Amino acid sequence: MAKRPGPALDRERLIGGWRLVAYDHIDVAGRRRPAAAWFEGLVVFEPGGFLTVVINRDAPSDRPQDGTIAYGARYELVGNTIRNEVRVASVRHWIGTVLERTAVLEGDRITFTTAPSESGHYELVWERL
After folding, report:
1. Is residue 98 within 8 Å of residue 74, measured between CB atoms?
2. Tens digit of pLDDT for each residue in 72-102?
3. Is the separation of the CB atoms in 38 and 57 below 8 Å?
4. E strand or H helix at 11, and its extent?
5. Distance CA 71, CA 53 (A)
6. How far, rounded to the nearest angstrom, does the alpha carbon of residue 39 sit from its chain's CA centroid?
7. In the CATH hierarchy, which fold is given to the domain comprising 11-128?
8. pTM of full prediction above 0.70
9. Which residues pair with 42 in a beta bridge?
10. Which residues lie closer than 8 Å to 117 by C-beta, 6 or more apart?
């Protein structure tokens, strides 16, 4: 179950670096499972409205490039939604699109929830560096 949004976020609270501490897939029936056996990630929010995200995760040895998700985007906050206008990405079909993430900030952790798809959605928990 996705976390409920709290008060609207402000950009100042996002600025800086965050490391990925949880990465889960929640299927359409609500079952939660780790999205990867091993992962590491970093997101950096810049004061000027740009962000960079890099996530490394386990991948088949014959396709190690499948283990990296990276993108750079211009972002804006709309209430508790972060809208990422993707400029460059390892997932090529993301380039030129807008990725939206619902965000819930609790202390030094922020949870991003992706939009639902046919298979469910993802929750990523980031901790301030």
Report:
1. no
2. 999 999 999 999 999 999 999 999 999 999 9
3. yes
4. helix 11-14
5. 5
6. 13
7. Lipocalin (2.40.128)
8. yes
9. 19, 54
10. none
Angle at 66 between CA 43 and CA 97, to 5 degrees: 55
Chain centroid, CA 19 distance in Å: 11
Q: Is the pLDDT of residue 5 over 60?
A: no
Burial, 100: exposed, middle or buried (Cβ in 10 Å; 0-12, 13-18, 19+)?
middle
pLDDT tens digits, 6-53: 667 888 999 999 999 999 999 999 999 999 989 999 999 999 999 999
Paired residues of 65 in beta bridges: none
Q: Tokens standing for 129?
A: 């560096």
Q: Are the C-beta atoms of 108 and 11 separated by less than 8 Å? A: no
- Token pair 């976390």 is at which residue? 3
Structure tokens at 82: 């972060």
How many Cβ atoms are within 10 Å of 91's Cβ, its own excluded? 13
